Amino acid sequence: MLGIIVQLALSWLIVWAFEKRNLSVLGFRPTKDRLLSFLVFFVVTAFFCSTAFILKMYAGKQAWQLNPALSFNLIFEGLRWNMVSVLYEELIFRGVLLYILIKRLGTTKGIIISAIAFGIYHWFSFGIIGNVMQMIIVFFITGAMGLLLAYGYAKTFSLYIPIGIHFGWNLTQMFIFSDGPTGNGILVPVTGQPFRTNSYFIFFAVTFLPMIFMLAVNYLLLRRKRKISMEDRLNL
């Protein structure tokens, strides 16, 4: 949590130095619309992320069971870790730097630069530097997510929607289904039943279609939202 406080302090210094603004550019103040948007985009994202694991159950004969070691402390730590990690990335890639990019270079260029940086960042966070094929796949997947998250901020000048989408995906994948670097969460794979299939089509469908549908549906939802201008944001 100390790291988030440091990030907020640095964010304030940067946005004040370049734009003479404060942290209101992050749109953190809770409103009914922002809280509802967070909930909607969180639920939609978590649903599509869950379908990947449901498909593995039916197409790959993989199964999950409730973690025998599940406890209140484990749930609290899982929620805390995932939220802190999401806030850490959002403050970097959709925070004041994106606000400055949009203001100086325009919305489209700002979104693209933010997405490219987000994709490259995951080469290092996933530890795949040197594996060209993995680098390409990860760049396109996380870059596409970065485009959606940056668009969510640019449309509303608030981090509620990007955080809702990001948290919905990470929490579901890493903590609910224990598919990530944090260890076992709520559900754990049944021993000896990894995802297997002899069909390349099924493999790619299970691996990529839930992400593609999540991106498409969230994008359509964002397009329907009223765009908040910078002037409107300052009054929120």
Task: Provide a descriptive summary of the structure in words.
With 236 residues, this protein is mostly helical. The protein has a domain at 76-184. The protein is 72% helix and 3% strand. A two-stranded antiparallel ribbon has the order 1-2. The longest helix is centred in the first third of the chain and has 28 residues, at 32-59. It starts with a helix and ends with a helix.
Number of strand segments: 2
Rg, Å, rounded = 19 Å
What is the beta-strand fraction?
under 5%
> What's the N-to-C terminus distance?
26 Å
Q: Pairing-aware structural class of the strands and helices? A: mainly alpha
Low-confidence stretches are: none
Shape estimate = globular
User: For the largest beta sheet, what order do the strands appear in spatially?
Assistant: 1-2
How many helix segments? 9
Mind summarizing the main beta sheet?
A: 2 strands, antiparallel
In helices, the fraction of residues equals over 70%
Let me know the average pLDDT.
Answer: 91
Question: H/E element string?
Answer: HHEHHHHHEHH
Task: Offer a quick outline of the entry.
With 236 residues, the chain is mostly helical. It has helices at residues 2-19, 32-59, 72-93, 96-105, 107-125, 132-156, 160-176, 200-224, 230-234; strands at residues 64-66, 187-189.
